[in-house]
Amino acid sequence: MPKRLLEFSDHTAIAGVGYTPFTKDSGVSTLTLACRAVLAALEDAGLAPDDVDGLATHRVGDSAPPTLVGPALGLADLSWHLDQFGGGSVSHAVVGQAALAVAAGLAETVVCYRAINARSEFRMGGTGRGLPASFEVQYQAPYGYVAPAQQFAMYARAHMLRYGTRAEHLGALAVTQRANAAKNPRALMRTPITLDDYLASRWIAEPFRLLDCCLETDGACAVVVTTAERARSLRRPPVLVSAAAWGGGTSHLSCDDPTVTAAAALAPRLYAQAGLGPGDVDVAELYDCFTYSVIVQLEDYGFCPKGEGGPYVASGATALDGALPVNTHGGFLSEGYVHGINHIAEAVSQLRGEAGDRQVPGAEVALSTAQPGYVLPATSALILRRA
Amino acid sequence: MPGYRPEPDRDSRAWWERVARREFAVQECDACGTLRFPPRAFCAACRTEGWRWREVAPEGEVESWIVSRQPFVPGLRDPYLVVMVRLKAVPGGLVYGNWRAERPPEAGERVRGVFTQVDEELIVLDWMPESCIAIRSGENSPAD
């Protein structure tokens, strides 16, 4: 382990969360969405824009960077900012790095945001968009193999072939998360579905059906990171950042086992930082661009043995009343897709005890995760704790 | 078949030129002999730069596959099958291609590469069962 130079665990906190509505067409720019979410998060925390000395986001050429949002909100002198390149795999690294900057004293109040018109302007699914900027895409594009739905379907089938994971397992996850979304006023899709509905939904890329795929969404979400000490004096109950970890994996063009993600290597570091283990997690908000990404993370974060993520979900363990409630807001599959930060915001709501009908009673520790390291070989995650 | 064409970079251009000559090559490290794909200047095992092309038989095993049914790519509306193959010559190496047989692949099935002439300028490497003789080279994909 590297030598520790500053105290990190539980020294910073999330003091506020803010959202725009989730829609299929926001009708406004990503800059406008970002400003609205940032101001909403500050309002939630009981802070003013002039309290902000840091901004952080991630993007893939699809959104407004801090150097645009800062001036747009009249934030003339930011002492720290981060414009992280990347998609869902770095979503939690943004908040982790903001917490690190606050812990190190580079900034005191950082607002992390993600703003996307992922439905009306920039569809991750690739429909009508050029090729992603990636060295490796040249070995896939000539075969019509470019969209995340295709890539994750490929890994899902590898998991099915190796471990016997079945469509019914993926379907159980989609059904469970929709049931959670039915209790979430913010969710785009709130009508409950059955396993038969799942099985009857049209093919996208076999083995994925429509209901395996997340909702491409217009919207923004933001969280305010500050010192734990300052958070205690603010409007809302503080949620402590107990652990933040990120890490790399191997390329999807060269790996020994595509059913193991970068999360498997990251998880021990993450848990060690918090002094906790999987058994201590009360609620998990796991990156669900597709059903399969949750199944593999349940294994790689140690909630069930390798290969048993499917049966674990089908057993009901991830339902609101199960052993490990997962994606209590409905996730990207049913609430909306804001590329990771809405998972962090939901974890905060749960730890504050403010999640309404979908509240997990007595939730004290939450795990929230980024895309586990497919496509781009990187991932990140947070453990958050009620103060 | 493709709506998209490969966009070679400075590391990969020579590899694509070999594919265009219906040759499948991987890199062999001068220092430690490790074979690697895709083309890169450095050996990830010993971190040295010296290497040479090593022509190998395009053979491998089926690791996974999908049947794409959504028009993700402009111009491609019909379903098509993309297979992920683990290279025999490079144990960690995964390659992709369209499947060129009338039946779907099987898990772990041994496959061989077949060069497909897409148009006057482009040749790509596709995959078919090892048991099939590569007589279909030059045709378009089964989905066309």
TrEMBL record, chain A:
GO terms for molecular function: acyltransferase activity, transferring groups other than amino-acyl groups. Keywords: Transferase. Residues 253-384 form the Thiolase C-terminal domain. Gene3D superfamilies: 3.40.47.10. It comes from the Bacteria. The keyword Repeat does not apply. InterPro entries: Thiolase, Thiolase-like, Thiolase_C_2. PANTHER family: ACETYL-COA C-ACETYLTRANSFERASE, NON-SPECIFIC LIPID-TRANSFER PROTEIN-LIKE 2. This is Acetyl-CoA acetyltransferase. It comes from Nonomuraea rubra.
From TrEMBL, chain B:
Gene3D superfamilies: 6.10.30.10. Pfam families: OB_ChsH2_C (PF01796), zf-ChsH2 (PF12172). It comes from Nonomuraea rubra. InterPro entries: ChsH2_C, ChsH2_Znr, NA-bd_OB-fold, Thioester_dehydratase-like. This is Putative OB-fold protein. Residues 16-49 form the ChsH2 rubredoxin-like zinc ribbon domain. Residues 53-115 form the ChsH2 C-terminal OB-fold domain.
